[in-house]
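2.7 Reproducibility. Because tokenized structures are sensitive to small changes in the input, we list the exact sequence used for K-box domain-containing protein, including any N-terminal residues retained from the expression construct. No trimming or masking was applied before prediction.
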Amino acid sequence: MLGEGIDVCSIEELHQLENQLERGLTRIRAKKYQLLREEIDKLKEEERNLIKENKELNEKLSGMGAIVVASSSSTLTSSEVNTDGNDSMEVETGLFIGPPEPRQSKKIYPQC
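Resulting structure tokens (single pass, no recycling of outputs):
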């Protein structure tokens, strides 16, 4: 298999050994490609499930009427978020020089 001890082999023996190695290599490659194909199919199915779940969560979120606002502080004041009653929103922002602060997402529900 490793090519050791072939110094005393005849041409016919070397030819037989070569054929055996080629058949073995063909079986190994077939099995490898089968396993890769199964893994790809499994990952594609997982991708489809995640896309479906993401779509359902987005529909659920939009059905709740929630507005997600990113804020660098832990609380938002009424001066930072202004809604005008028709589902539009203005957010005051500021420019800070230096490294960014950690951001947290907050859900703000429109007042009806």
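Helices lie at 11-64.
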